[in-house]
Design brief:
Helices cover 39% and strands 17% of the residues. It is α/β, with parallel strands linked by helices. The protein has a single domain, classed as Rossmann fold (3-Layer(aba) Sandwich). It has an eight-stranded mixed beta sheet, sandwiched between helices. A two-stranded antiparallel ribbon has the order 7-8. A hairpin with a 2-residue loop joins strand 1 and strand 2. Helix 3 crosses helix 12, helix 4 packs across helix 5 and helix 7 packs across helix 10.
Protein backbone atom coordinates (compact mmCIF):
# COMPACT_ATOMS: atom_id res chain seq x y z
CA UNK A 1 0.00 0.00 0.00
CA UNK A 2 1.15 3.55 -0.71
CA UNK A 3 2.06 6.09 1.96
CA UNK A 4 -1.15 7.96 1.02
CA UNK A 5 -3.14 4.94 2.16
CA UNK A 6 -1.25 4.21 5.37
CA UNK A 7 0.08 7.53 6.71
CA UNK A 8 -3.00 8.08 8.89
CA UNK A 9 -1.78 5.27 11.14
CA UNK A 10 1.07 7.50 12.38
CA UNK A 11 -1.40 9.53 14.44
CA UNK A 12 -2.50 6.56 16.58
CA UNK A 13 -1.33 3.62 18.63
CA UNK A 14 -1.57 0.07 17.31
CA UNK A 15 -4.76 -0.77 19.19
CA UNK A 16 -6.63 2.23 17.74
CA UNK A 17 -5.49 1.36 14.22
CA UNK A 18 -6.51 -2.27 14.71
CA UNK A 19 -9.91 -1.26 16.06
CA UNK A 20 -10.54 0.97 13.07
CA UNK A 21 -9.45 -1.70 10.60
CA UNK A 22 -11.76 -4.24 12.24
CA UNK A 23 -14.84 -2.02 12.24
CA UNK A 24 -14.44 0.24 9.21
CA UNK A 25 -16.38 -0.27 5.99
CA UNK A 26 -15.24 1.78 3.00
CA UNK A 27 -18.12 2.92 0.81
CA UNK A 28 -18.09 4.99 -2.37
CA UNK A 29 -20.91 7.08 -3.82
CA UNK A 30 -21.12 9.38 -6.83
CA UNK A 31 -21.37 13.11 -6.13
CA UNK A 32 -20.48 16.16 -8.24
CA UNK A 33 -19.25 13.79 -10.96
CA UNK A 34 -16.60 11.99 -8.88
CA UNK A 35 -16.37 9.10 -6.44
CA UNK A 36 -16.76 10.24 -2.84
CA UNK A 37 -15.24 7.82 -0.32
CA UNK A 38 -16.72 7.32 3.15
CA UNK A 39 -15.51 5.45 6.21
CA UNK A 40 -18.60 3.84 7.75
CA UNK A 41 -18.77 2.44 11.27
CA UNK A 42 -22.15 0.74 11.22
CA UNK A 43 -24.21 -0.51 14.14
CA UNK A 44 -26.12 -3.78 13.56
CA UNK A 45 -29.34 -1.90 14.35
CA UNK A 46 -30.32 0.16 11.31
CA UNK A 47 -32.45 2.36 13.58
CA UNK A 48 -29.43 3.50 15.64
CA UNK A 49 -28.76 7.23 15.68
CA UNK A 50 -26.43 8.27 12.84
CA UNK A 51 -23.69 10.91 13.02
CA UNK A 52 -22.12 12.11 9.75
CA UNK A 53 -18.75 13.60 10.72
CA UNK A 54 -17.34 16.10 8.21
CA UNK A 55 -13.75 17.34 8.07
CA UNK A 56 -12.50 20.85 7.34
CA UNK A 57 -10.15 22.23 4.71
CA UNK A 58 -6.97 20.86 6.26
CA UNK A 59 -8.25 17.44 7.20
CA UNK A 60 -9.77 14.18 6.08
CA UNK A 61 -11.89 11.48 7.66
CA UNK A 62 -9.29 9.50 9.62
CA UNK A 63 -7.78 12.48 11.39
CA UNK A 64 -10.88 12.38 13.61
CA UNK A 65 -10.71 8.65 14.34
CA UNK A 66 -10.73 8.86 18.18
CA UNK A 67 -13.98 10.86 18.05
CA UNK A 68 -15.40 8.47 15.46
CA UNK A 69 -14.60 5.38 17.52
CA UNK A 70 -15.86 6.97 20.76
CA UNK A 71 -19.22 7.72 19.15
CA UNK A 72 -19.39 4.22 17.70
CA UNK A 73 -18.64 2.68 21.11
CA UNK A 74 -21.62 4.58 22.52
CA UNK A 75 -23.96 2.89 20.09
CA UNK A 76 -24.08 5.33 17.17
CA UNK A 77 -23.49 4.63 13.50
CA UNK A 78 -20.78 7.01 12.31
CA UNK A 79 -20.14 8.02 8.69
CA UNK A 80 -16.95 9.96 7.95
CA UNK A 81 -16.89 11.10 4.30
CA UNK A 82 -14.04 12.73 2.41
CA UNK A 83 -15.07 15.69 0.29
CA UNK A 84 -14.22 16.10 -3.36
CA UNK A 85 -10.46 16.29 -3.97
CA UNK A 86 -9.64 15.49 -0.35
CA UNK A 87 -8.75 12.40 1.65
CA UNK A 88 -9.55 9.24 -0.29
CA UNK A 89 -12.13 10.80 -2.62
CA UNK A 90 -11.62 11.56 -6.30
CA UNK A 91 -11.36 15.03 -7.77
CA UNK A 92 -8.66 17.58 -8.46
CA UNK A 93 -6.71 18.12 -5.24
CA UNK A 94 -7.03 21.84 -4.72
CA UNK A 95 -9.41 22.93 -7.47
CA UNK A 96 -12.98 22.71 -6.21
CA UNK A 97 -15.65 24.95 -4.72
CA UNK A 98 -17.56 25.34 -1.48
CA UNK A 99 -20.74 24.54 -3.41
CA UNK A 100 -19.31 21.19 -4.50
CA UNK A 101 -18.38 20.33 -0.91
CA UNK A 102 -21.90 21.18 0.22
CA UNK A 103 -23.38 18.96 -2.49
CA UNK A 104 -21.08 16.12 -1.42
CA UNK A 105 -22.47 16.35 2.11
CA UNK A 106 -26.07 16.55 0.85
CA UNK A 107 -25.52 13.41 -1.25
CA UNK A 108 -23.99 11.56 1.71
CA UNK A 109 -27.00 12.42 3.87
CA UNK A 110 -29.39 11.11 1.20
CA UNK A 111 -27.37 7.88 1.03
CA UNK A 112 -27.56 7.58 4.82
CA UNK A 113 -31.28 8.34 4.93
CA UNK A 114 -31.97 5.54 2.44
CA UNK A 115 -29.85 3.05 4.40
CA UNK A 116 -30.73 3.91 8.01
CA UNK A 117 -33.96 4.75 9.82
CA UNK A 118 -32.47 6.39 12.92
CA UNK A 119 -32.22 10.06 13.82
CA UNK A 120 -29.55 11.67 11.65
CA UNK A 121 -27.08 14.36 12.77
CA UNK A 122 -24.52 16.36 10.81
CA UNK A 123 -21.29 17.21 12.64
CA UNK A 124 -18.70 19.49 11.03
CA UNK A 125 -15.55 21.17 12.25
CA UNK A 126 -13.60 24.21 11.05
CA UNK A 127 -14.61 24.93 7.45
CA UNK A 128 -16.80 21.83 7.81
CA UNK A 129 -18.99 23.77 10.25
CA UNK A 130 -20.20 26.14 7.54
CA UNK A 131 -20.46 23.29 5.08
CA UNK A 132 -22.84 21.26 7.24
CA UNK A 133 -24.95 24.33 7.93
CA UNK A 134 -25.16 25.03 4.20
CA UNK A 135 -25.99 21.37 3.50
CA UNK A 136 -28.84 21.44 6.03
CA UNK A 137 -30.06 24.68 4.44
CA UNK A 138 -30.12 22.83 1.11
CA UNK A 139 -32.71 20.45 2.63
CA UNK A 140 -30.32 17.66 3.51
CA UNK A 141 -32.54 15.14 5.34
CA UNK A 142 -31.03 15.62 8.80
CA UNK A 143 -32.64 16.15 12.18
CA UNK A 144 -30.05 18.42 13.79
CA UNK A 145 -26.59 19.95 13.32
CA UNK A 146 -23.46 20.15 15.47
CA UNK A 147 -20.93 22.79 14.42
CA UNK A 148 -17.41 22.90 15.86
CA UNK A 149 -16.86 26.58 14.95
CA UNK A 150 -19.38 28.31 12.70
CA UNK A 151 -18.50 30.24 9.54
CA UNK A 152 -20.53 32.01 6.88
CA UNK A 153 -19.35 31.65 3.25
CA UNK A 154 -21.53 34.55 2.24
CA UNK A 155 -19.71 36.94 4.56
CA UNK A 156 -16.65 38.72 3.23
CA UNK A 157 -15.56 39.35 6.82
CA UNK A 158 -15.69 35.66 7.76
CA UNK A 159 -13.59 34.67 4.77
CA UNK A 160 -10.93 37.21 5.67
CA UNK A 161 -11.08 36.08 9.31
CA UNK A 162 -10.40 32.50 8.19
CA UNK A 163 -7.12 33.56 6.59
CA UNK A 164 -3.71 34.81 7.63
CA UNK A 165 -4.90 38.30 6.78
CA UNK A 166 -7.61 38.65 9.42
CA UNK A 167 -6.11 41.87 10.77
CA UNK A 168 -6.70 43.57 7.42
CA UNK A 169 -10.46 43.40 7.76
CA UNK A 170 -10.35 46.13 10.39
CA UNK A 171 -9.09 48.54 7.74
CA UNK A 172 -12.05 50.31 6.09
CA UNK A 173 -12.90 48.76 2.74
CA UNK A 174 -10.06 46.23 2.82
CA UNK A 175 -12.28 43.13 2.99
CA UNK A 176 -14.38 44.25 0.03
CA UNK A 177 -11.25 45.17 -1.94
CA UNK A 178 -9.74 41.73 -1.28
CA UNK A 179 -12.91 40.01 -2.45
CA UNK A 180 -13.04 42.13 -5.60
CA UNK A 181 -9.41 41.37 -6.41
CA UNK A 182 -9.85 37.62 -5.95
CA UNK A 183 -13.03 37.63 -8.05
CA UNK A 184 -11.26 39.56 -10.80
CA UNK A 185 -8.24 37.28 -10.98
CA UNK A 186 -10.38 34.14 -10.56
CA UNK A 187 -12.36 35.16 -13.64
CA UNK A 188 -9.10 35.39 -15.62
CA UNK A 189 -7.23 32.41 -14.14
CA UNK A 190 -9.64 30.25 -12.13
CA UNK A 191 -7.23 27.32 -11.93
CA UNK A 192 -4.25 29.31 -10.66
CA UNK A 193 -3.03 27.76 -7.40
CA UNK A 194 -1.96 29.43 -4.19
CA UNK A 195 -0.02 27.60 -1.46
CA UNK A 196 -2.65 26.75 1.13
CA UNK A 197 -0.25 27.38 4.00
CA UNK A 198 0.23 30.94 2.77
CA UNK A 199 -3.53 31.49 2.94
CA UNK A 200 -4.54 29.75 6.19
CA UNK A 201 -2.72 29.64 9.54
CA UNK A 202 -2.32 25.88 9.77
CA UNK A 203 0.70 26.36 12.02
CA UNK A 204 -1.80 27.65 14.61
CA UNK A 205 -4.21 24.72 14.19
CA UNK A 206 -3.61 23.34 17.70
CA UNK A 207 -2.56 24.83 21.02
CA UNK A 208 0.74 24.06 22.72
CA UNK A 209 -0.57 20.80 24.21
CA UNK A 210 -0.92 19.22 20.77
CA UNK A 211 2.40 19.78 19.08
CA UNK A 212 2.78 16.05 18.38
CA UNK A 213 -0.36 16.13 16.24
CA UNK A 214 0.86 19.10 14.24
CA UNK A 215 4.32 17.55 13.71
CA UNK A 216 2.65 14.48 12.18
CA UNK A 217 0.07 16.49 10.23
CA UNK A 218 2.59 18.78 8.51
CA UNK A 219 4.24 15.72 6.90
CA UNK A 220 0.95 14.04 5.99
CA UNK A 221 0.69 13.66 2.18
CA UNK A 222 -3.12 13.70 2.13
CA UNK A 223 -4.15 17.23 3.25
CA UNK A 224 -4.31 19.58 0.29
CA UNK A 225 -1.22 21.73 -0.26
CA UNK A 226 -2.58 24.37 -2.63
CA UNK A 227 -5.96 25.83 -3.59
CA UNK A 228 -7.22 27.45 -6.76
CA UNK A 229 -8.52 30.96 -7.19
CA UNK A 230 -11.81 29.28 -8.13
CA UNK A 231 -11.98 27.85 -4.62
CA UNK A 232 -10.95 31.14 -3.03
CA UNK A 233 -13.69 32.97 -4.90
CA UNK A 234 -16.27 30.44 -3.71
CA UNK A 235 -15.39 31.06 -0.04
CA UNK A 236 -16.62 34.64 -0.48
CA UNK A 237 -19.69 33.89 -2.57
CA UNK A 238 -21.51 30.76 -1.38
CA UNK A 239 -24.04 31.93 1.20
CA UNK A 240 -26.38 29.41 2.78
CA UNK A 241 -29.80 29.16 1.18
CA UNK A 242 -31.23 29.91 4.63
CA UNK A 243 -29.42 32.76 6.44
CA UNK A 244 -28.36 32.13 10.02
CA UNK A 245 -31.09 34.49 11.25
CA UNK A 246 -33.79 32.36 9.57
CA UNK A 247 -32.50 29.00 10.81
CA UNK A 248 -35.12 26.65 12.24
CA UNK A 249 -33.13 23.42 12.75
CA UNK A 250 -31.76 22.44 16.14
CA UNK A 251 -28.08 23.34 16.26
CA UNK A 252 -25.27 22.99 18.79
CA UNK A 253 -22.26 25.28 18.34
CA UNK A 254 -18.96 24.36 20.01
CA UNK A 255 -16.45 27.19 20.23
CA UNK A 256 -12.76 26.47 21.06
CA UNK A 257 -11.69 29.53 23.02
CA UNK A 258 -7.94 28.92 22.66
CA UNK A 259 -8.28 29.07 18.89
CA UNK A 260 -5.35 30.99 17.38
CA UNK A 261 -6.10 29.94 13.80
CA UNK A 262 -9.48 31.72 13.60
CA UNK A 263 -10.66 34.02 16.35
CA UNK A 264 -13.39 32.51 18.59
CA UNK A 265 -15.14 35.86 18.16
CA UNK A 266 -16.16 34.78 14.64
CA UNK A 267 -18.01 31.69 15.87
CA UNK A 268 -19.66 33.57 18.75
CA UNK A 269 -20.79 36.31 16.37
CA UNK A 270 -22.38 33.77 14.06
CA UNK A 271 -23.99 31.85 16.91
CA UNK A 272 -25.61 35.08 18.10
CA UNK A 273 -27.09 35.52 14.61
CA UNK A 274 -28.74 32.10 14.63
CA UNK A 275 -32.48 31.71 14.79
CA UNK A 276 -34.19 28.53 15.86
CA UNK A 277 -33.41 26.17 18.76
CA UNK A 278 -29.71 26.58 19.53
CA UNK A 279 -27.14 25.73 22.18
CA UNK A 280 -23.65 27.09 22.72
CA UNK A 281 -20.66 25.51 24.49
CA UNK A 282 -17.11 26.83 24.88
CA UNK A 283 -14.18 24.44 25.22
CA UNK A 284 -10.68 25.31 26.44
CA UNK A 285 -8.78 24.06 23.38
CA UNK A 286 -7.28 25.27 20.13
CA UNK A 287 -8.87 25.18 16.69
CA UNK A 288 -8.53 21.40 16.83
CA UNK A 289 -7.30 19.20 19.66
CA UNK A 290 -6.31 15.63 20.42
CA UNK A 291 -5.65 13.56 23.50
CA UNK A 292 -7.77 11.60 25.93
CA UNK A 293 -8.96 14.57 27.99
CA UNK A 294 -10.15 16.42 24.89
CA UNK A 295 -11.91 13.40 23.42
CA UNK A 296 -13.67 12.65 26.71
CA UNK A 297 -14.89 16.24 27.12
CA UNK A 298 -15.84 16.55 23.47
CA UNK A 299 -17.77 13.30 23.40
CA UNK A 300 -19.56 14.19 26.64
CA UNK A 301 -20.79 17.44 25.09
CA UNK A 302 -21.89 15.77 21.87
CA UNK A 303 -23.55 12.75 23.49
CA UNK A 304 -25.44 14.97 25.94
CA UNK A 305 -26.79 16.94 23.01
CA UNK A 306 -27.69 13.81 21.04
CA UNK A 307 -29.57 12.36 24.00
CA UNK A 308 -31.42 15.61 24.63
CA UNK A 309 -32.51 15.71 21.04
CA UNK A 310 -33.72 12.11 21.07
CA UNK A 311 -35.64 12.69 24.30
CA UNK A 312 -37.44 15.69 22.83
Amino acid sequence: MSIHQTYWQNYYDESTVARSNALRQEVTIQSTGVNIQMDVYEQPDKSALVVILNHGAGGYSRIFLPVTLALYERGYTVIAPNQRGQGYSEGDRGDFTVGQFVQNIVDVTHWARQRYSGVLFLLGGSVGSGLVYNAAAESAPVDAIICHNLYDFGSVHDTIDLSRFAALRHLPGCSALTRTAIQFFAALMPGLRLPFGAVAKFDAMVDDRDTRFYDIWKNDPLPIKSVSLRYMRSTFSTPARIPFEANTRPILVINPVRDKMVSPVVTKRNFDRLGGPKQYVEIDYGHWATGESFVNEYISIIVTYLQQHIST
